[in-house]
Structure to design on (550 residues):
């Protein structure tokens, strides 16, 4: 419930404070006095964007503050979600600086406009003339039907499952696309992999084979050189090894004459032994090197295959080729894994779809059950507010599962009992839409907790008995809700529990807006003026008295 609205430096309001009752509050006043300015200020603390042009005094900031009395459970989830401290009395403040910067606070804690708007939806239902466009909104129409069907918790649970279902659908679609792309090159990758697996190269093999081929291709030169070296070392007329042995013996003979000779002789002995080993290994190596035309042909074929694969896969060695083979094997395995994941997701999707279908059927059944009673009640209210020939019909057509069930919901309207129903936004006039919205909200209010209902000139286009009936409906709403209504209709004003009069003050060359609560006699006089003009007649006064007291 909105207890108090404080406005400073907004539009033509310099400083204003209004305390509202918890029942039916009516705001009246001459056109241009500033009635709708009050709601403009209120909309700022409900999350509307600020315009710095609304500052009354451009040198000072604008401050709008609303004090609400709320039930703990009403806003508990919001305060927990945003980690705010909850108190029984809720104060929302909006500040607009002279530079145009806007700030918002909930119980002195800064919040952003999104949070403010989210909170305001829990506190106030603001109905303005242009809000009748909501009646054309499929989302609004569905919310009305579900509110009256008691589907709120069911739809919320369904939406949670539908979100999971949508995520699975999205992931499944991505995997199928990925698999299709993989399958498009699967055959070629399999050919490449088969080619590499058939080649059966081992680590470093091509480099080893290349070295072997060089030896075989130069075997004659290698054997000739090795034979010559071996001959000079061991079989020449004066073999190098034998000469070295003789020189070592001579050096050893000097041991008695020079202390350094034995060491040198020992080193020469080591060299002699090393040359003998070298000569032996050269001989063995020479025996191993043999020209083999068949082996050369085999190596050339093997190396040709290897170098062709190098070029095909843009690598430079055998290990690079083996890495490509491993990548292809992983890729092939990945395709198999994709198929397994897709199968698992398809099974999960089917399971979720079955659960959704069951939940959607339940939601649909409840919607269908409430349709006829809702139509009957709305049509009765329409007759009450001066539209006896108007009819509303709820169209429920089943379609594919979507975020709110499986139904396509549409409110159809026939203003003249012609049995030609059409979408409500296409055939209803502005006045008809306003009264239809009032009838619908009065029904919804009994099913959903709308703490404060605000109507801005919802009575446009009606008068007389229709206006009186609108006042009766609002009075009934005020039994369980706080209702604030801006009106020009005396029949509605007469039903109020508290009557506020908006007026202009002209002082010090400045025009400002003021608001005051009317006493009973002042109410009678004001309503009489609404009936007959600035100087009300005795009949108008009597009529006004009957409206207020009767």
């Amino acid at each position: 419930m909105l207890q108090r609205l404080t406005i400073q430096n907004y539009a033509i309001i310099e400083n204003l404070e209004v305390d509202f009752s918890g029942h039916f509050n009516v705001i009246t006043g001459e056109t241009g006095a500033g009635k709708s300015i009050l709601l403009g200020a209120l909309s700022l603390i409900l999350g509307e964007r600020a315009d710095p042009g609304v500052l009354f005094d451009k040198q000072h900031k604008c401050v709008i503050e609303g004090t609400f009395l709320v039930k703990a459970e009403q806003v508990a989830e919001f305060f927990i979600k945003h980690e705010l401290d909850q108190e029984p009395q809720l104060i929302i403040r909006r500040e607009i600086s002279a530079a145009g910067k806007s700030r918002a606070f909930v119980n002195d804690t800064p919040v952003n406009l999104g949070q403010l708007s989210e909170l305001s939806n829990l506190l106030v239902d603001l109905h303005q003339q242009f809000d009748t466009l909501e009646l054309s909104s499929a989302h609004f129409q569905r919310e009305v039907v579900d509110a009256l069907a008691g589907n709120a918790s069911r739809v919320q649970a369904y939406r949670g499952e539908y979100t999971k279902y949508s995520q699975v659908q999205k992931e499944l679609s991505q995997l199928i696309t990925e698999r299709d792309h993989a399958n498009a090159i699967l055959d070629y990758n399999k050919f490449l992999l088969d080619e590499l697996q058939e080649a059966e190269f081992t680590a470093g093999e091509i480099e080893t084979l290349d070295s072997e081929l060089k030896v075989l291709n130069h075997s004659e030169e290698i054997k000739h050189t090795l034979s010559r070296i071996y001959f000079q070392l061991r079989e020449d007329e004066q073999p190098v090894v034998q000469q070295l042995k003789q020189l070592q013996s001579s050096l050893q003979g000097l041991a008695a004459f020079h202390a350094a000779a034995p060491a040198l002789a020992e080193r020469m002995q080591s060299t002699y032994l090393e040359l003998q080993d070298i000569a032996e290994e050269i001989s063995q190596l020479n025996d191993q090197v043999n020209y083999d035309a068949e082996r050369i042909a085999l190596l050339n074929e093997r190396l040709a295959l290897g170098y062709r694969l190098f070029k095909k896969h843009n690598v430079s060695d055998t290990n690079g080729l083996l890495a490509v083979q491993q990548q292809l094997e992983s890729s092939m395995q990945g395709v198999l894994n994709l198929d397994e994941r897709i199968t698992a997701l398809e099974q999960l999707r089917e399971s979720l779809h079955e659960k959704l279908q069951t939940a959607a059927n339940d939601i649909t059944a409840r919607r269908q059950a409430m349709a006829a009673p809702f139509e009957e009640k709305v049509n009765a209210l329409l007759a009450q507010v001066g539209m006896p020939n108007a009819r509303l019909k709820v169209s429920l057509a089943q379609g594919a599962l979507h975020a709110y069930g499986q139904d396509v919901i549409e409110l159809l309207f026939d203003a003249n009992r012609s049995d030609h129903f059409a979408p409500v936004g296409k055939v209803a006039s502005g006045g008809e839409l306003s009264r239809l919205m009032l009838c619908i909200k009065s029904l919804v209010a009994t099913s959903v907790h709308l703490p404060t209902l605000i109507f801005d000139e919802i009575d446009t286009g009606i008068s007389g008995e229709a206006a009186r009936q609108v006042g009766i409906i609002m009075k009934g709403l005020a039994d369980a809700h706080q209702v604030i209504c801006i009106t020009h209709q005396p029949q509605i004003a007469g039903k109020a529990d508290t009557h506020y009069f908006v007026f202009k003050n002209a002082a010090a060359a400045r025009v400002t807006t003021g608001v005051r609560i009317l006493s009973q006699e002042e109410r009678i006089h004001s309503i009489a003026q609404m009936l007959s003009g600035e100087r009300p007649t005795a009949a108008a006064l009597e009529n006004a008295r009957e409206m207020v007291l009767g």
Q: What stands out?
A: The CA atoms of residues 79 and 360 lie 31 Å apart. Residues 205-316 form one domain. The mean pLDDT is 86.
